[in-house]
Amino acid sequence: MSATRSTSHADLVTGEHETNSFAAEPMKNPRPSMSGARDGSNSAPNTLEGFAILHQFFRIRRREWTARPANERAKVLAQASSTFAAMGEREDGQSALFTELGHKGDLLVLHFRRGFDQLAEAERELAESQLAEFLEQSGSYLSVIEIGLYESTVKIRSELLARGVTPDSPQWREAVATEMGEQRAKLASRLWPRIPDRRYLCFYPMNKRRTDTDNWYMLPLEERQRLMHEHGLIGRRYAGQVTQIISGSIGFDDWEWGVDLFADDPLVFKKLVYEMRFDESSARYAEFGPFHFAIRLATSELGRLMGGEALR
Q1: For residue 159, how many other CB atoms are within 10 A of its CB?
Q2: What is the value of pTM for the model shown?
Q3: Cα-based distances in Å from 277 to 45, 223, 254, 298
Q4: Residue 15: left (phi > 0), alpha (psi -120 to 50), or beta?
Q5: Less Cβ crowding at N or C end of the chain, within 10 Å?
Q6: Which domains are seen in the chain, by residue range?
Q7: Catalytic one among 150, 200, 204, 285?
Q8: pLDDT value for 70
Q9: 62: which residues sit within 8 A by CB, 6+ positions away?
Q10: CA 7/CA 98 separation, integer angstroms
Q11: Is 308 left (phi over 0), alpha (psi -120 to 50) or beta?
């Protein structure tokens, strides 16, 4: 599948969380951080991190909104439109609006930023806006775009051990740093993508299972790499139909990864997620959180969402 890939379950294109398919235009001066195995005993894949991501879910207080005079509502909408338009045109991480369907919320605001401090600024800017008086936050999700390098980690570790290089030695660290630098340059556009310009969004968090019989984290790295490769073969059939962005949330939120799927045909979400349930890495090791479905919202449509009043 196309997507921004990470160390999560859905390596939909190559089978390693190495491509977030459908790479968008790269941001300026990409400088992702990296983490992962330097020695032969660490079973974690090397990872690259990019944009910090914040999903904000809101319910609209429509009774309070419609009770206000029309001129006041117009003023609030004008300010909100200006704020969101500026956020959507940033070169160092955008924001986008979505109408959420169902009982979980009415408005989804998605922020991509260079770091968590910048996310805090975006959150504060929205909280201090006039529109915030008519919004009730129903949830949020915090994560960071993560590309897990399963295949390259297995490859370089095997090569270094075969050459007799001592794990965590200066030579080992230098080789890993060189490999990570090459991967960083290669994957920059997937670490710093623009928010995909597609009409529909499906977002859900997920974990890898940790039970006595099916514990993902007790599997050897090579076995996990094999499972992810097979998992990715399914996604290849959806290349061009779906843009996927996977973000890591261990230490940031209640689940381990967040998955954003963007498409112009909403039925592809159902088909893709259903087909992947039969894959071993999902059937045995994946646990899924609540699903959110939303439709892209232009700033000019905000008034209609709030209560039948369009911006002029």
Answers
A1: 12
A2: 0.86
A3: 23, 19, 22, 33
A4: left
A5: C
A6: 2-307 (3.30.70.1030)
A7: 204
A8: 95
A9: 134, 306, 307
A10: 26
A11: left
For residue 187, CA distances in Å to 32, 95, 226 come to 10, 22, 21
Q: Is the pLDDT of residue 37 over 50?
A: no
**What percent of the chain has pLDDT above 70?**
85
Question: Cα–Cα–Cα angle for 201, 239, 271, nearest 5°?
Answer: 60
Q: For residue 53, what are the β-bridge partners?
A: 112, 143
Known catalytic residue at 217: no
Burial classification of residue 11, based on how many CB atoms lie within 10 Å of its CB (0-12 exposed, 13-18 middle, 19 or more buried): buried
User: Measuring CA to CA, how many Å separate 120 from each of 46, 134, 137, 144?
Assistant: 27, 20, 15, 14
Q: Which helix (H) or strand (E) holds 171?
A: helix 170-186
How far apart are the two ends of the chain, measured CA to CA in Å?
A: 39
Rounded CA-CA distance 192/185 in Å is 11
- Say which amino acid occupies 232: G
The residues facing 46 across adjacent strands are 149
